[in-house]
Design a protein that fits this description.
homotetramer, alpha/beta, Rossmann fold, seven-stranded parallel sheet, three-stranded antiparallel sheet, 18% strand
Chain lengths: 239, 239, 239, 239
Amino acid sequence: MKIIVEENYAQMSRVAANLLLGKMYQNKRVNLAITAGSTPVKMYEYLIEDVKNKTYLDNVHYYNFDEIPYKKKSGYGVTMNNLNKLFFEPAAINPDQIHPLDETNYKTQDLRIEQDGGLDLILLGIGADGHYCGNLPGTTTFEDLTSYVGEDATEDMQEILLSEVGGDENERPNFYVTMGPKSVMQAKEIVLFATGKKKAKIIKQAFFGPVTNNVPASLLQVHPNLTIILDKEAASEIL
Amino acid sequence: MKIIVEENYAQMSRVAANLLLGKMYQNKRVNLAITAGSTPVKMYEYLIEDVKNKTYLDNVHYYNFDEIPYKKKSGYGVTMNNLNKLFFEPAAINPDQIHPLDETNYKTQDLRIEQDGGLDLILLGIGADGHYCGNLPGTTTFEDLTSYVGEDATEDMQEILLSEVGGDENERPNFYVTMGPKSVMQAKEIVLFATGKKKAKIIKQAFFGPVTNNVPASLLQVHPNLTIILDKEAASEIL
Amino acid sequence: MKIIVEENYAQMSRVAANLLLGKMYQNKRVNLAITAGSTPVKMYEYLIEDVKNKTYLDNVHYYNFDEIPYKKKSGYGVTMNNLNKLFFEPAAINPDQIHPLDETNYKTQDLRIEQDGGLDLILLGIGADGHYCGNLPGTTTFEDLTSYVGEDATEDMQEILLSEVGGDENERPNFYVTMGPKSVMQAKEIVLFATGKKKAKIIKQAFFGPVTNNVPASLLQVHPNLTIILDKEAASEIL
Amino acid sequence: MKIIVEENYAQMSRVAANLLLGKMYQNKRVNLAITAGSTPVKMYEYLIEDVKNKTYLDNVHYYNFDEIPYKKKSGYGVTMNNLNKLFFEPAAINPDQIHPLDETNYKTQDLRIEQDGGLDLILLGIGADGHYCGNLPGTTTFEDLTSYVGEDATEDMQEILLSEVGGDENERPNFYVTMGPKSVMQAKEIVLFATGKKKAKIIKQAFFGPVTNNVPASLLQVHPNLTIILDKEAASEIL
């Protein structure tokens, strides 16, 4: 476990971008699973600059690791829409290099990734509850591969799903899909990043506390190649 | 997770020996943590033949991953004595290539291994209770690094320690030391092997059941580079 | 460059088999380019025992690195016929795992191997003239990828081709194809083995002398991951 | 061989910096051999920003690959002085992480690097004559490890040495030391970068022409993990 603490959000984002770029410049297929959400916004801004229209990076393949479908709207779900907006579109990534996970193919996600040569790196955020990908406390357990999580998985799941689709009841799905803890641990390298005071407590709990399904991200601390990138605020309880 | 099922104990042992030998022939330092006990007896017979007096294998370094000290007898404890008898002495391994873990240095074991470049491979057996190394149910938990386990750790620990020193009350120690789950998971590759009907149930439980501290070896199923070598009997519940 | 010197041909062959087997036991596709000829006969005997009917080795893919077509006979050429007889047939290798190079596809050999993920290991013999694969002095030069070599490439090429088809003038081809020096050097690991007094001089010349196209194998000494396995006779001029 | 062509010198420098940074963020010792001269000036500017005072990069070790001693001045020679000015000092690199090669230790350079675990990456520039490190045409040959090159090695060597010390006859040395072609090829990864029209011809010659001692850098094209980073002008003859 390597812990990198940076001054602020922008510098944390620059390190994350550098780390991903360093993986990309290879003369072989490189498979990256990347995260949507708010933490990576700045990192994608940096990445776009270094990735857009670079044909020499056509060896890089991208995977999303969870998806929340819209109930009615056709096309991509919440995660892929977000990734498109944050990165794939502004960086003009060729669709051939994007491998969407969704409700139609989640059962073969682990096999497909294995056949593609495995993930070289998976980039994760972390929630204040210790979740990463769609592995929320009470949904999946450590031995799970890519999974279907129904609206009844936890007490507040319907509420969570509603919030994920922007509060639009018509679009609230009754499930989502996610790579499970065991899927994520198969990656050759795991990078997790976090920003802000609100993440300080869970960072301590997940990486310096017990490995327990109650704190899903706590499993990651036993991966042989884990890097954690934090700004000072997110690191404030471990320094 | 790659599962190799072989016809019988001898062939399972040959595959384990081949796999270790394949790691050894490199033009760089290779760090192996290896297991004592009864499962590896035949494998060491094969290895000795291919390793003895081979100066071209002086790049290989060996680590024990647990130690049970004798109460009075000075010198090596139970594990290193066993490894000496099974392998180091008959294979005439140079002492410079052997890095004993014991009660005097267990607190720095993880750091020393990291400074040596990390373990390239750790070879493990498994107990019918799901233990590996000295990680018995109730002793260590997943987040533990190399640990001291006292005679009060579990109800039957005094009995276990007595049995480990051959039933000699004068030599029964009141503790042992072991690399913990988190230490083991840092290895670049984990190989676990098992033989016989008596291991069939735990193999199923540990590698196809939940990841839980009640079955310590169950954690290994989430390592990104795990190989399990079984004979048909040990595999009989998973085929 | 790691040099392994063994007592005799049988032990040299065992080490080569061990080294290849060690590569095979992985939970991912493994690409091996292997050699025909007389040097590997014993090694294949060992390998067959450990590979035959092992479905857990269906991740291993095999490539030949040169081919001498028969002029009239249809089907495989000299190299693939030899590999079939020595290894593929007795080891019952699934045809899906065999990727023949021949005169119809040699122009895409390098691209195909790259798309398959590259060679994990290439096993080479060496001729008394310093050739490996079909890279004889005067045929290819260091910068060549997979190449066509015509009967006029060197003065004695017609004679060599005649000898390769057993002296049958009706079957003497007027060319052969071979992976070139640059193709071979792209492999992640190169293993070269040699047996007998008659190879002692070229071993010294190729690996302890100048890197020159006059001694094609001399280029291999600059590969970052080269292992040379010799019996005592083949090593007699370098000890 | 992966070729990256960027718009201009600044962007080429940014890619080189990204690639090096990507190597650095690891939880293990990382050994980099880096180049002095004019090509890397901008790259070091970028690197300094991301490396200065970052204690989490204390796992990175730096090596120079050649040295031209001053005749009289004591202390570092031309290369280390230049590296100090361009990078080590402004980036505040800890001296423990810097491993100077000089005339007193060049004979053990290859062994020391091997014992340190080998070079993870070597970053090279290229001269219009095809030289890299101190491997000028007529000085070393492909099979050479780290070498001493005397003032009589080539006709114009005295002049070259004079120019290297800024034309000061009192300081002109009568030799320099350099890692040889075989030393450089042992690195796990080679990155070569070039800028400007004046390098366009040698880029074509070295990487798309014959492998010959007359063009020392031509050997690099057979390394299994070579990346070439160019701006458009340097790439103008190969596009």
